[in-house]
Every structure is written in C-alpha cells, then in structure tokens.
C-alpha cells in the first residue's frame, strides 16, 4: 500500500480525522488537535514557497499573525461578522504579501531569508507598539467564535474541531491541485535552478511572487481560524519562533512533499504535549531528538518512505530483468530460412 501516495493513504488519514473526536477522552485533546490543524494549514503554505519553490520565508508566522489580527480587530473593535472578517484577512494578507514579495524576491538565497526575517520583526513591533490599532501588549480579547449556519454552531470544541479539520482538508486538496499542475512544476523548476527555468521561458519574478502570495494566504487564513478558535490574541503570535516551529514540522515530516508537513505538524505538537511533565526541561530532551532526526532522516518521514519504496522498486526491476535474461538464454534460437539453426 502506498501510504503517502494515492487515494488509499489519504482516505485513511481522512477517516482517522473524522473518528478522532470519538476517541478523544476530553475537550482538551480536541483543542490541541484543532490548534495543530490550524498550524498544519499554515505549514502547508510555507512548504509551497520553501519546499516547492526554494525560497525560505522567515516572516511566515508574522503573516499568520496579520491574518489573526485582521479578524480580531474587525470583529472586536468594529463588530464585523466573523466570516466577513475572515475573508478580509485573506485579502489583506494577499495584498501585503504581494508588496513584500515584489521587494524581497529580488534577492536570493540567504539574503531573501534575512530580509523576510527583518520584515517579520517589523510586523511584530508594529503589533506590539501600535496600541490604538492592535491593543498592543494588552492583547485582543473577546473575539467571537466563528458564526454557525442554521442549526450548526461552532461554540463547542467538537464543532470547532470539525471546522478546522474541514479547512485543513480543503487546503491540502487545493495544494495537491496546485503542485501537480503546470504551475506547480513551474515552481519546482525555479527551485531546482533559476537559470534553467529562465532559459525555458519561465518568468521568475512573476512566478516567485505568485508562490509567495499563495503561501501567505494559507498563513493568513490559518491565522483567522486561530483567532476564532483561541478567542484572544497577543503580539507573541507574530514572533519568528512560530516560523521556526513550522520549519521543524516540514523537516520532520519531509520538506517538498505534500504529506510531510502535514504529518510533522500533527506529530510534533503531540510529542511536546507528552513531554510537558518535564516542564522547562522538555526541550532539553526534544532538542537532541530533533537533531538526530535531521541527521539521520534529512528528508523526513515521508522522504525515508519514498527512498525505501524506490529501493524496493529498483530491486524488483533488477530481479525481473535477471529472470527475463535467464529465460531468454534458455530459449532455443529461432531457425533461419537457409535451414541452419
């Protein structure tokens, strides 16, 4: 069974997601998983610009905070309905992302990453210091939960779980369509070689900006969901550590794959939860585990699985080739028209 490819594996993951609330022993587990789904959605977006296009955006967590604060400000200070504010968050993040992308993507490699790190820190300072708009360090509290439809309400942890799960499923499906399209192959061509992609007639700047905008839209919408799920916001959400967390999810699961960031974003938060009994020392244990994973599994869990599948397929092909050669050597040679064998 191809666990990380094809319909079987995805169907299994979908079924497990649907069944999880029935196995959860309390609402806290549902809340942890809902938050993991939200960060998984943002990580899928980061993987588009980093794993598929080859540009490491260190402001990704700040764009998630921008989406969250757009929802928080509009709903709390201006009484805008949640879903209208949620759409506005996507628009605001896309517009700001296009502006940042047009400037930053003129740089390459480490220079691009350093530039986006500075942009992310500026966004953090704006959120922390602009009290009249963002409430500063006093936080935004009282954000309403996502409004329901008809008899459906998202006030309970189980309903909120299914809402975040639905957005994650939709986000992964859309990303699957993107990366397996001509546009996705264009992004991967840019990742592999700017020069080669340009020689093929690919407009580097336009496609890099498009990948950047699409990735931050994922972050912005994840931030909007986060605002509705957690119901309060603080400046720490814009900190670069959240981008590093998402990077860790990609590395553990498998960067540049569709299932990898998803698996990493779901496995790592639960690992940290189970290490909570160590309190401040849990990262002393978790850090070396992560280092060992990066050293011995540089392509992540999904990358390791793919490598083993390729080796298995290679051995099967070699075995079939040897069997065919042996069969051909035993077969009698065909007679020719002159009567000689």
Automatic annotation (TrEMBL):
Stretches that traverse the bilayer: 29-49, 56-76, 82-103, 110-127, 159-179, 209-229, 249-271, 283-305
Membrane topology: Multi-pass membrane protein
Residue numbers spanned by region Disordered: 317-341
Chief site of localization: membrane
Signal peptide stretch: none
Subcellular location(s) of the protein: Cell membrane
Sequence ranges of Low complexity compositional bias: 317-331
InterPro entries: ABC_transp_permease (IPR001851), LivM-like (IPR043428)
Entry keyword Transmembrane: yes
Lineage: superkingdom: Bacteria
Alphabetically ordered keywords of this record: Cell membrane, Membrane, Transmembrane, Transmembrane helix
Protein name: Branched-chain amino acid ABC transporter permease
Organism annotation: Paraburkholderia sejongensis
């Amino acid at each position: 069974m191809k666990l990380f490819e094809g319909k079987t594996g995805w169907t299994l993951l979908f079924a497990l997601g649907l069944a999880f609330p029935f196995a959860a022993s309390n609402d806290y587990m549902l809340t942890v998983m809902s938050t993991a789904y939200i960060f998984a959605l943002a990580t899928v977006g980061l993987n588009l610009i980093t794993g598929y296009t080859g540009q490491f955006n260190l402001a990704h967590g700040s764009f998630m905070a921008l989406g969250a604060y757009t929802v928080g400000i509009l709903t709390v200070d201006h009484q805008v309905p949640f879903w209208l504010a949620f759409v506005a968050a996507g628009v605001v993040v896309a517009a700001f992302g296009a502006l940042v992308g047009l400037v930053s993507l003129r740089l390459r490699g480490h220079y691009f990453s350093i530039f986006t790190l500075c942009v992310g820190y500026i966004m953090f300072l704006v959120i922390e210091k602009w009290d009249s708009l963002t409430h500063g360090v006093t936080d935004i509290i009282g954000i309403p939960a996502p409004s329901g439809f008809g008899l459906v309400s998202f006030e309970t942890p189980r309903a909120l779980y299914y809402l975040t799960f639905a957005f994650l499923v939709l986000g992964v499906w859309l990303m699957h369509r993107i990366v397996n399209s001509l546009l996705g192959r264009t992004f991967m061509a840019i990742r592999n070689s700017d020069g080669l992609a340009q020689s093929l007639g690919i407009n580097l700047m336009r496609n890099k900006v498009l990948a950047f905008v699409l990735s931050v839209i994922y972050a912005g919408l994840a931030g909007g969901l986060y605002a509705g799920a957690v119901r309060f916001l603080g400046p720490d959400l814009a900190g670069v550590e959240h981008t590093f967390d998402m990077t860790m999810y990609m590395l553990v699961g498998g960067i540049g794959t569709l299932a990898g960031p998803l698996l990493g974003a779901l496995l790592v938060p639960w690992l940290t939860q189970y290490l909570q009994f160590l309190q401040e020392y849990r990262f002393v244990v978790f850090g070396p585990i992560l280092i060992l994973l990066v050293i011995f599994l540089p392509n992540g869990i999904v990358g390791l699985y793919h490598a083993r599948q390729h080796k298995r397929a290679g051995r099967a092909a070699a075995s079939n080739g040897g069997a065919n050669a042996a069969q051909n050597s035993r077969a009698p040679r065909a007679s020719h028209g002159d009567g000689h064998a």
